[in-house]
Structures are given as C-alpha cells and as structure tokens.
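Troubleshooting: if your tokenizer reports a length mismatch, compare against these two reference records.
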Amino acid sequence: GGGGGGGGESRRPHRRRRLSSVMKGNSRKESCWTWLKVAFLLSSAVLAYLLRGSSLFSEEGVTEVLAHHRESLKDRFIEVSCSEDYDSHKRFEGCTPRKCGRGITDAIISRAEAERIRRIAEKGLALGGSDGGASILDLHSGALSLGKHFVNMYRYFGDKVHNIFSEEDFYLYSELRQRIQQKIALTFGISSSSLYLTKPTFFSRINSSEAKTTHDEYWHPHIDKVTYGSFDYTSLLYLSDYVEDFDGGRFVFMDEGANRTVEPRAGRVSFFTSGSENLHRVEKVRWGTRYAITISFTCNPDHGIGDPVLTQ
C-alpha cells in the first residue's frame, strides 16, 4: 500500500513539469502573437504615412504630390514633351514653347504680399459674387460675377470703384505680374520682353456652394491653349492655404497613368506651358474658401493687354 502511495507522489512532479512547460509554451505563443500584432500595426502605420506622402493610390490611379502645402519650395521644375498644339497657331521664335513643363516656386512672392493682394480680391468680390461656388474678378476688363451673371464693375459701380481700390493696389498687382513673367522667361529660356500679358487674367474665389450655372463648374479637365488660343504660358498665384483655409481645391495635372497635384499655399506660384502636355483640373472645394489669381501670357503681341489702371 505504502509503495503505491509513494508511486503517486513521484508522478506529481512530472505532471507539474508538463503543466509548467505547457504554460511556458502558451506564454511564448502569446508573446509571439503580441509581437506580430505590434509589427502589423507598425507596418500599417508606416504604409499609411508613405501613402499620405508623395505618392497616393486613388480610384484614378497613382497620385503624386509635386508640392506640399507645408513645404517652402525655392524651385521645382518638371520638364514634359511639348504637344503639337502650338503648331496650329502662328509661331514666334524665341518665345513659342520649344521646352515644355511645369514649375512651382514659393520664393518670388512673400506670404505678406499674397495677403495684401488677396485683400484686393476680397474688396472687389464684396461688390458682387456668384450665387454658385466660383466667383471671378477681372481688373483688366472689369468683369465681376454678380448672381448668375457678369457685370462690368467699372461701368456698373462707377465712382464707387475708386473708393474701394487704391493706386497702390494696382501697382502691387503690376509688380507681382512682372516677377512672375520674369520667372517664366528664365525657366523656359526665353526673353521676358517677348511675353505679353493676355486675357483672361483674373482673381478667383471658390467655395463649396452648389453650382448654379456652367460658369461655376470649375472642376472639369481642360487645356488652356484649346480653351483660349492666345495662351502660351499660364501661371497661378495662390492666395490661401490648402488645409488651413479650405479642403479640396488642389490643382491636378492629369498625366497618362498618374495625377500630379499642387497643394495651394499663399504666395506659391505654379506656372506651365499652356498646351495639352499640361491637361489639368481643380478638385472641388469641400469646405472653406480658396483664392487665387490666374495670370496668362502670350507670345503674340496682337493678343497682348496692358496692366489694369484705376482711372478707367
């Protein structure tokens, strides 16, 4: 009897050792699963960060961000092959694009200057404004969105315009236009004096209001040279900040197989040759207000216009 009892006692340590080894094995498995979970979460976070960076995957394919709103760019230029669009118009050697592409710079216009010129847009658009999401102010022709139509603000408001704008406003407008013109000339290797300001050149104010007329539908893909035959070089000066002042509203170059976007930043100038090598669109603004100026240039002196003057 005593011998049987002793045998039972001697088996218990073996059971305890087996139980201990099973528990250790389970603990190691749990630890392994924990590390796998951590590794998965870390890799997911890294992937999300990378996708949010310079290349994003969207329903339309890959989207590359050419200029983030948080970075200050001295210069960025991407050369692309010229389209044949320029061949169907009179060529001006030393000006008509032979080198094509798109450039971005935050170095030629300060944020303070952008704020000053934005106030010109705000003052002018306070006179009218579209019922839909996109309002236009053209200091050259006087065209101003008003409800569902356009009016010539110089005729419609008369002397009131002189109380709203100052000579300094128009001087600043001209000064910034000259800097942009010189930057385009330098980048594309042409003479600044061979470029002429052309129409339409205008302020735009875009918000998330529903479109009321086709003039409010700013988001359609288009080619400037096709829409406006006089355009050879197009520039945009942004007067508000993506994410801070509005969401959506990014500028999108629609290249084959990829979209390449510019995120607006006050003082940022985006410029490009106007042919179908630079097919583009603007995303719909989801909230807030996006201000910009489109300043366009031609090589044809017959299509040139002068800077706006207050004494119209």
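Reference record two:
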Amino acid sequence: MSSENLGVVFGPTLMSTHEEGKEFNPYEYHLVTTLIDYFPWLFQVDVEMEESKGKELKLAEAELKKIMSQLDAPRGSVDNSWIVEMFHQQNSVNIRIESGQTLRDVSAEILFRAKLVDGDSDYSLSEFLCDGQLQRPIHLSEYLLNTTVTLWEERVQKSWLAIDNNSIKEKLRKFDPPQDNSTEQGTLHIYEGKKKWKEVHCKISSDNFTYSKLKVKSTINLLNYTWYLGCESSLAPPNGPRHCFTLRCLTPKDHKDDIFKVFSASDENELWRWIFRINYVKFKEPDYRLVRSKRATLQNPNNRNSF
C-alpha cells in the first residue's frame, strides 16, 4: 500500500482534527503521508542497515525451515550435510557428514580428528540417550546422518555421540551365529508402565520379535527398531538396570505412545544372548570397530574376529 493510501486510511484516526459532520481535512492526509515518506530522516533510521537486517532474518528463517524439513524427513531421505559433534574423553571433534555416508566411510577421519591410532586399541562410536542411561555402539554400515538426526527427535533428550573403547567385543564374541531358520526363546520381563513389570515368554524368529503371556501375544519387526543397553533408572527393573535392554522404534510418528520397549533379563549372560541375536537380525556381523582403512573391514566379512 502506498503512503498516499495509508494517509487516507489512518489520517482521520490519528489526527482527529475535524469536527463531526464536516468534510475530510486534507491536512490530516498530508501530515501522515509526509511522516511515512520522510521517516528515515525524521527518526534517523539507516535504511540500508534495516534492509540488511531484513535479508539476514530471511536467510535465518530459510535455514530454520531447511533444518526442520530434515528433522521431519523419513529415514533414508535426509539430504545435504551436517556438522556432527563427537566426544572423546574431555575433548570433542566436529565431522562433516554427507548424505549417504556410512560410519565406515568416515571412520578414518574420526580417528584422525580425535588423534587416535588405529591398532593401539579398539574404538567404536557410540550413541547415548536419556542422559547416558541408554547406550549402543553404531554399526559401521549405518547411515550416520540418519542416526544423528534422531538425536533431536521428540522425547530423545540429553543425547550425544562419543568415541569410546569397543567394550562389546568380548561380550558378543562368545556367541555363535544361529543356524538357518532357528529361533531364540526364553523368559524376560517387560515394562508395562507405572513402575510395573510382567514376565513374558519371548521368541525371535526370522526378523520378528514376539513376546506373550497367556493368550496375549505381541510381535514387532526388529528391522524397525534399534537396541540400547540399559534403561532409565526411574523404571526400577526387577534385576537392576544393568541387566536391561531397550528397543527404540525407528518410525516414532507411527508409534507416538510406544516408542520405547524395555526388557529385563535374569542375568548378564541372558542379556547378552538376546542382544547378540537382535544384533544378528539387523546386521549379521557385529562390525563396530573404527578403522583407518575401509579395505581392512571388507577383506573377510565372515570373520567374526574383525569386530
């Protein structure tokens, strides 16, 4: 709207100099029009600076929309690149992650930036959720950008990535790969809510994880979930949080009220037996060790000693 039109609209309201019943006073119109036309001089406004601020604001809004669109994107569709922060002891490193890059693709750069020597020790990149109460190592075949985006999803708070010793190596090494069409069965406790747990019979067959009690049976596809060691301490599991594992849904929009499923095993050996089988369904080989060369992890993919 032009200054003349604004003067016509707001002049009588702002000035109110004419008496009721009299015609429109042209001075009201001209005064408002003049204030609008000469506002930079009257109010000492730097027009170029204001225009620059406006452009910066528009760029910031565009960047925010871009970030929000990536957060709302379905798994596998996140594009562009992000700067991802990873912690190692008291230090942190920033790695640029491109769309479509797996952890294997950036493994060497992570070791280099963190000043860690491949071969002196085993290192893996782990994801920590809920203030560190849930943790898991990230598999070398995972798309790292999609993994890090989940850290900002709703209900996943106080989360970070850390480079640490490959502590699961010896735990998983003692289990043999399952035979074709074999099932894993046993008893676990599942968290029902309000600090209540119930005993359920569990079975893993193919990609499905089934847990049941009496005639009530529930089945989830493990390919749609990822596992974590531990659980939130406030849940008070029957055997303590150190014998727990948590399954988190990778499509939270489809399971808003059922993102986390928490299970408690009877002892540590039972815990790792289930973790090994769940991990086998998702990745077959427990390949978590960060290495300098991609070729080192691909020479013998069937060698269980390579993780």
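Descriptive notes for reference record two:
- The two ends are 68 Å apart (CA to CA).
- The chain has a mean pLDDT of 77.
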